[in-house]
Amino acid sequence: MSESVALATAEIVRPSVSSGVEVMFAGPERRRFPPRLSETLGLCLKSGPAHLVRVDGRELSYPADALCVRLPGCVWECTTELAGFVSIDIPTGFFADAPVAGGGMRFAARGVPDLDLQAQMLLAADSELLVQEQLTRLLTRVQQLGGFELAAGHARPRAVARARELIHAGFASRLDLETLAGAAGLNKFSLVRQFRDVLGTTPHAYMVMLRVNRARELLAEGAAPADVAIEVGFSDQAHMTRWFLRTCGVTPAAYVRRVLTGAVGQFRSRRA
Length: 272
Description:
Blueprint: E1 3-5, E2 11-14, E3 22-38, E4 41-47, E5 51-55, E6 58-62, E7 67-70, E8 74-90, E9 105-108, H1 115-124, H2 128-144, H3 158-170, H4 177-184, H5 188-199, H6 203-220, H7 225-232, H8 237-248, H9 252-258, E10 259-261
Parallel strand pairs: 1-3, 2-10
Antiparallel strand pairs: 2-3, 3-8, 4-7, 4-8, 5-6, 5-8, 7-9
Helix pairs in contact: 1-2, 3-4, 3-6, 6-7, 7-8
């Protein structure tokens, strides 16, 4: 059986009245996810057997047919597994009680909401207010499952937190390791080691993840790929395309073609 990378075969839809929310549907197949940074609050209902997922440098067991909650700031990856899923990614700005950072991943395998139905309802909503109400009700149900304190998250060591702040503020510029280390109060070697220990990745890789995330937002809004590449800090469009393929499994152009804005009825969940 062939392997897909990340979003290569997923259907990606954004509600027409809410540009920040992204819904994905993917049928069952062998798929792997290279390291990626979740800046949103992610809900993902997977169909498939239990498997391992690496979160902030630590291995966790993703239960069979379970709901996953990815807290913002989470860096994660997954080796090739057979699974389908439906996911909803929610910008943290939608909810004051959702953490801006903190990281981590939580799971629930019983009593989980029908995320497929919730996604369809979101995509059928005809106002921003209705989208927000539906998301609020959904997150309230998720919290009631237990173990999902959305305002929580594990604390980052101060040095790593400071380096992260600088990367978020300047990911589109030419950051160098000496600047990051100096701001964090560490030498370069200690910063790289601590960054990897806490987040499971390096400062450079983290910066590239931020660039790709921002590029996805701009591309979904209709910006030209060549302009996006420069705006987010890549040297040119080809440079952005290489990283897009590596992290998302698709080119920027293919990603744009996959993003359907408010295209209710043009897709169906293929998790089963």
